[in-house]
Amino acid sequence: MPFQQDVRGFAAERDWTQFHDPKSLVLALVGEVGELAELFQWVPADEARRTYSSGPRRQRAEEEISDVLIYLLALGNSLDIDVLDAATRKLAAARDRFPVESVDGVAPEKD
């Protein structure tokens, strides 16, 4: 949780926590995900990895991915959720739900 604490400290030092209610942070997060999606919008799927593997496009992808992560951690702070701990538990549950031997190479269906 150290980086999540850094995000909390960054906002607190600037007296921004007053603006960091869950609704506002979700909207900011959606906006940043939109900016990330916009980078890939017209790039053919089979070219996306190569297109964003180096240079200025990689830098832009890094920036937008970072913005998404920072807002997600800020949302966790607002709701007093340790995001890394919650994600670790979620991944463990997914391992149980989708054992390798039953889903290897197969996209899982939605419930």
From TrEMBL:
Domain of life: Bacteria
Family annotation (CDD domains): NTP-PPase_RS21-C6_like (cd11537)
Record's GO cellular component terms: cytosol
Alphabetized InterPro entries for the sequence: dCTP_Pyrophosphatase (IPR052555), DCTPP (IPR025984)
GO biological process, one term: dCTP catabolic process
Keywords: Hydrolase
GO molecular function (one): dCTP diphosphatase activity
Cross-referenced Pfam families: MazG-like
Keyword Hydrolase part of the UniProt annotation: yes
Protein name according to UniProt: Nucleotide pyrophosphohydrolase
Organism listed in the record: Janibacter melonis
